[in-house]
């Protein structure tokens, strides 16, 4: 006994744990879920130990030699395979291989009792007979064969479920034995379907390298090693501070071996000219500098020279010397005074006069 439970009690306990696992609201990758997976596997393992110690099954026996109450224990490896598929304790690749191993052990035990003649494909039966399990035998490589096998398994599963339901309603012991055997055959059909899916997943997982298998070149390995010991010094003037390295303008742009020491900008006159022409007129127009333009305007007489405070002249002295100009100014002033007297302000407004 283990934990004070018999084989029957431990098997029932393992089933209750598996039921809780299937209905668990926790995520499969949560610690609570994985703890329940581990407990379920442990319980089924204890059942397996019971079966081994009690020597319930033997390769030399037939189905008639098995006690009716012991038939259900042939499904222990099937339940262990189903539970292992949910485990994340190992890498996914190792988990798949372990689940496949449990499925084949389950199928092999059923085959020893002659329970799989009409259930398993011939390729898997041949694999079980040789005792050498290879992953390539798990799934058919012929698409037409694979589809035909799936249809056949679906039909067989429905037939077995109907058979189990009919036999369980009977009180005859022989009918109950047949119901137990039919249930094992139903598990075998499900096991083959699971093997097909696991093999597909195995092909996908195998494409990814396992953790720790990525190789590192010698230079990178030395760099990582130096990082653990202290600052690296691949070259003279190296600094771990990016800011100091970027602002150090005393370093040449390129080292002797062609490494870039600091940021720099490549300027291309031809490229800049092309960019300016993108939004241009599409024509090559004549151009000149500002100085050249002013010189040209001066030659054409388009620029008036002089002006400004330094060139302002006092015209009052010239007017005093010129009597004719003085007389003209006086005459104009008198005419303006006479006009103002003859036309007082507002005299031209005839609106609203009574």
UniProtKB/TrEMBL annotation:
InterPro entries: TAP42/TAP46-like_sf, TAP46-like. GO terms for molecular function: protein phosphatase 2A binding. Residues 326-337 have a biased composition (Basic and acidic residues). Gene3D superfamilies: TAP42-like family. Residues 298-354 are annotated as: Disordered. It holds the Pfam family TAP42. GO terms for cellular component: cytosol. GO terms for biological process: regulation of dephosphorylation; regulation of signal transduction. Residues 316-325 have a biased composition (Acidic residues). It comes from the Eukaryota. This is Similar to Saccharomyces cerevisiae YMR028W TAP42 Essential protein involved in the TOR signaling pathway. It comes from Geotrichum candidum.
């Amino acid at each position: 006994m283990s934990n004070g439970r018999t084989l029957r009690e431990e098997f029932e306990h393992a089933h209750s744990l598996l039921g809780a696992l299937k209905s668990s609201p926790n995520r499969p990758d949560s610690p609570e879920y994985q703890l329940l997976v581990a407990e379920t596997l442990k319980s089924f393992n204890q059942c397996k130990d019971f079966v081994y110690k009690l020597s319930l099954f033997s390769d030399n026996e037939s189905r008639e030699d098995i006690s009716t109450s012991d038939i259900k224990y042939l499904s222990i490896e099937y339940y262990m395979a189903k539970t292992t598929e949910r485990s994340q304790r190992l890498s996914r690749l190792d988990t798949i291989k372990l689940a496949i191993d449990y499925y084949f052990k389950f199928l092999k035990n059923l085959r020893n009792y002659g329970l799989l003649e009409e259930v398993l494909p011939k390729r898997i039966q041949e694999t079980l007979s040789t005792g050498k399990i290879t992953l390539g035998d798990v799934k058919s490589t012929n698409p037409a064969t694979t589809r035909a096998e799936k249809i056949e398994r679906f039909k067989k599963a429905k037939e077995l479920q109907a058979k189990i339901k009919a036999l369980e309603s009977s009180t005859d012991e022989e009918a109950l034995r047949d119901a137990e055997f039919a249930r094992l055959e139903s598990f075998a059909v499900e096991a083959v379907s699971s093997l097909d899916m696991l093999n597909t997943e195995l092909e996908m997982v195998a494409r990814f390298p396992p953790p720790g298998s990525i190789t590192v070149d010698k230079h990178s390995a030395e760099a990582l090693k130096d990082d653990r010991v202290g600052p690296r010094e691949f070259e003279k003037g190296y600094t771990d501070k990016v800011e100091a390295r970027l602002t150090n303008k005393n370093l040449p742009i390129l080292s002797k071996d062609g490494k870039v020491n600091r940021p720099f900008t490549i300027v291309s006159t031809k490229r800049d000219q092309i960019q300016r022409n993108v939004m241009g007129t599409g024509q090559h127009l004549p151009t000149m500098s500002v100085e050249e333009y002013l010189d040209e305007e001066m030659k054409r007489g388009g620029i008036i020279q002089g002006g400004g405070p330094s060139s302002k002249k006092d015209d009052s002295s010239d007017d005093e010397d010129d009597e004719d100009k003085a007389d003209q100014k006086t005459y104009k002033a008198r005419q303006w005074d006479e006009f103002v007297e003859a036309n007082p302000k507002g005299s031209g407004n005839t609106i609203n006069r009574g």
